[in-house]
Design a protein that fits this description.
alpha+beta, Lipocalin, 2 domains, eight-stranded antiparallel barrel, 8 strands, globular
Length: 166
């Protein structure tokens, strides 16, 4: 009976260790960008865009190496999401830079293409995140493409941007 108890305890310990190892591996899984040429936003967003309405310029530059920089506190939110694009975003007007070369991720939130970008907070370069919905209407030529940028939620209006350069 004691031998059976020892074997059961040993098997329990082995299974527990394997479970903990599996959980640890899941937590440290690196973020991956899926290159889907059929994803309209991902395939057309790179470049510079201008909004006549507000005088804003947005520039997207793809660079998947930023995925290595994303803090672990965002991993839970991102772990079940497909990342379609990653890189750097700059948002500015003629008189003000709102963000310059900050990491962004394109994913989907509630079925909508969604940009999540990171900024400094309390000395941490990626300590805070902002986000917005985004859509692209493909034109007859790339210069005719239109970018629509909304808010965090679907009840906020969208600004229209025209392509300046790809």
């Amino acid at each position: 009976m004691q031998n059976l108890f020892q074997k059961s305890a040993f098997l329990f310990l082995v299974c527990s260790l394997l479970s903990f190892k599996s959980l640890a591996q899941q937590e440290s899984t690196p973020l991956v960008c899926v290159n889907d040429k059929e994803n309209v936003v991902s395939s057309a967003m790179e470049g510079e865009w201008f909004s006549q309405q507000e005088g804003y310029t947005i520039n997207f530059k793809k660079d998947t190496t930023i995925l290595e920089q994303i803090p672990t506190k965002y991993q839970d939110f991102l772990k079940d999401k497909v990342i379609y694009s990653a890189g750097y975003i700059t948002i500015k007007s003629e008189t003000k830079v709102f963000t310059e070369n900050k990491p962004y991720i394109l994913t989907v939130l509630s079925g909508n293409p969604h940009i999540l970008w990171f900024r400094e907070r309390d000395g941490d370069p990626l300590g805070d995140s902002e986000s917005f919905n985004v859509f692209i209407a493909i034109g007859e030529t790339t210069i005719d493409d239109l970018l629509y940028v909304g808010g965090d939620f679907n009840n906020q209006p969208f600004l229209r941007f025209t392509r300046v350069k790809k």
